[in-house]
Design brief:
Blueprint: E1 2-10, H1 18-36, E2 39-47, H2 52-61, H3 66-75, E3 80-88, E4 91-92, H4 94-100, E5 112-119, H5 127-138, E6 142-143, E7 148-151, H6 165-182, H7 185-189, H8 199-204
Parallel strand pairs: 1-2, 1-3, 3-5, 5-6, 5-7
Antiparallel strand pairs: 3-4
Helix pairs in contact: 1-6
């Protein structure tokens, strides 16, 4: 069975966090959708709250402590990214943006990204489209058409009256799973172990031929 690696980034600040809860739900439905396609999902969950000091140090000093560096490197090997943030003052959290600023500009090229956000009122739901989507498009990632916003009133209710939160999660996860299944990192970035010229040339010292 094919295995796809998915990084799940959550930038909730409280414990427990509705942002992490939404991230978990998106991951669970994605795993189900991929399994139906004969694909196994391997998830790496990242709580930015736990990396806040490392992120600040990287921004101030210019280098990543080992734990943060490992997370950033994992994005360069991932087949998909689930990114979920709380919405503060009509946009993503500062911690979330600070983390994104540290990502290698090439790491997210053509990478499928499922966007999620949480907030107190459905009025913040548009932040996915006017704030989060342009951010990841700028990084050459491929955000899914369906972004999933969860307001406080969505938990344990029928949702917004048009499509319930579970329905929206399922729809976003389905789109994301299809994109992850198709994604081929070697086609985007090439094989890092490939030789830049034939082996015979390397052995024979024929560098430019």
């Amino acid at each position: 069975m094919t295995t796809k690696r998915i990084v799940v980034v959550s930038s909730g600040l409280s414990t427990p966090s509705s942002t992490r809860q939404l991230a978990d739900r998106l991951a669970d439905d994605t795993a189900t959708e991929l399994r139906e396609r004969g694909v196994e999902a391997e998830f790496q969950f990242v709580e930015l709250r736990d990396l806040a000091h490392d992120i600040a140090n990287h921004l101030l000093l210019g280098f990543a402590p080992p734990k943060l560096e490992a997370v950033l490197e994992s994005l360069g090997r991932a087949d998909g990214l689930i990114a979920v943030t709380p919405i503060f003052t009509t946009s993503y959290a500062g911690l979330f943006k600070s983390f994104v600023d540290l990502i290698d500009p090439d790491a997210l090229t053509d990478l499928p990204v499922l966007l999620g956000a949480t907030g107190g009122t459905p009025r913040h739901s548009l932040a996915i489209d006017y704030a989060m989507r342009p951010l990841f498009t700028y990084l050459h990632a491929v955000p899914m058409t369906t972004g999933v916003f969860a307001a406080t009133g969505d938990w344990g209710t029928g949702g917004d009256g048009v499509r319930s939160l579970p329905d929206r999660i399922r729809r976003g996860a389905s789109e994301f799973a299809e994109a992850v299944d198709r994604f081929d990192r070697t086609a985007v970035h090439g094989d890092p172990f490939a030789l830049d010229r034939p082996m015979g040339h390397l052995l024979g010292g024929l560098a430019g031929e």
